[in-house]
Design goal:
By secondary structure, the chain is mainly α. It has a single domain, classed as Farnesyl Diphosphate Synthase (Orthogonal Bundle), CATH 1.10.600. It has 14 helices and 2 strands; from the N terminus they run H-H-H-H-E-E-H-H-H-H-H-H-H-H-H-H. The chain has a two-stranded antiparallel ribbon. Bound molecules: geranylgeranyl diphosphate. Geranylgeranyl diphosphate binds next to helix 4, helix 8, helix 9 and helix 10.
């Protein structure tokens, strides 16, 4: 299978497994389950689950990486639902559809996000509970990443910085934690599940790869916000400027942001080469992430 065939095949496997792993839309309380499914089934690129599967594939072992891939998508989707709320980024479009709080209401959207978080850890417990060493490591990676010093902390700092004087260190902090942390965690979980997951040197190199890939992803996101339409993105374009957000584009210009994205992608690729293994798909994925249009 070539790169795009494999990507499509993994995306459809992930979509099918996500469909199976959430409570049915008619299950009581139906409104809550419908809202969870509404945001999850709206699609999205599924990049984080694909990163888990691809990192596992570097040194594949007997353990199924899919539960970890589903768990990280549950955390990611909750973060998008909450990010769109009026109290946060106040976005009305997500994954090509009205945001969850508009399709339902604010309270339901808050609860749908809330409910996706424990579901993530339940999926990990169900998938890896019989392998306590591995299971605990995965819970540790995902819970630390989703917590106050990474994803939530990055979001807090992002909100506190709206309309403030641009500060490069602050922007770096926000992007390392709000965006790169989840990309890094996806790669670390995938590698940990594979047959060489206890090799600390490989895990350290993967940490560096994840950070660079995440920072590249954010620089591309900042660029797309100014160069693409809402229709192409499936979310509001020019949202950053409207919300007084500092981005790599406002700090360094389009050319500077593009250079940053290319450099970080290159560093990610070098770190991935240090990790080793069957890395062709993952290297192609870094190019796909750099060249993406949505
Ligand atoms: C509410 C705790 C909390 C965190 C929110 C996800 C997030 C943090 C904010 C979304 C706004 C944003 C531009 C984040 C940075 C880049 C990012 C995470 C984009 C969305 O990820 P994609 O493009 O989305 O992978 P899809 O829909 O394809 O899954």
């Amino acid at each position: 299978m070539n790169f795009s065939e494999k990507l499509k095949s993994w995306q459809s496997q992930v979509n099918q497994s996500l469909e199976d792993c959430l409570p049915g839309g008619k299950e009581h309380p139906a409104r809550l389950h419908e809202a969870m499914r509404y945001s999850m089934e709206a699609g999205g690129k599924r990049l984080r689950p694909i990163l888990v599967l691809a990192a596992n594939d570097l040194f594949p072992g007997p353990v199924d990486p899919m539960p970890a891939a589903l768990a990280i998508e549950c955390i990611h989707t909750y973060s998008l639902i909450h990010d769109d709320l009026p109290a946060m980024d106040d976005s009305d479009l997500r994954r090509g559809r009205p945001s969850c709080h508009l399709a339902f209401d604010e309270a339901t959207a808050i609860l749908a996000g809330d409910a996706l978080q424990p579901r993530a850890f339940e999926i990990l417990a169900d998938g890896y509970g019989r392998m306590p060493g591995l299971g605990i490591d995965l819970v540790k990676i995902l819970s630390a990443t989703a917590g106050s010093q990474r994803l939530v902390g990055g979001q807090m700092q992002d909100l506190l910085s709206e309309g403030k004087i641009p500060d490069e260190d602050n922007l770096q902090y926000i992007h390392e934690n709000k965006t790169a942390a989840m990309i890094q965690a996806s790669l670390l979980m995938g590698l940990r599940i594979g047959s060489r997951g206890e090799d600390t040197e490989k895990m350290e190199a993967m940490k560096r790869a994840g950070k660079s890939l995440g920072l590249a992803f954010q620089a591309v996101d900042d660029l797309l916000d100014v160069t693409s339409s809402s229709e192409e993105l499936g979310k509001n374009a020019e949202h950053d400027a409207e919300h007084g957000k500092v981005t790599w584009v406002t700090l360094k210009g389009e050319e500077g942001a593009r250079k940053l994205a290319t450099e970080h992608t290159q560093w990610a690729r070098e770190a991935l080469q240090e990790v080793g293994g069957e890395g062709e798909f993952l290297l192609d994925l870094t190019t796909y992430m750099l060249e993406r249009t949505s």
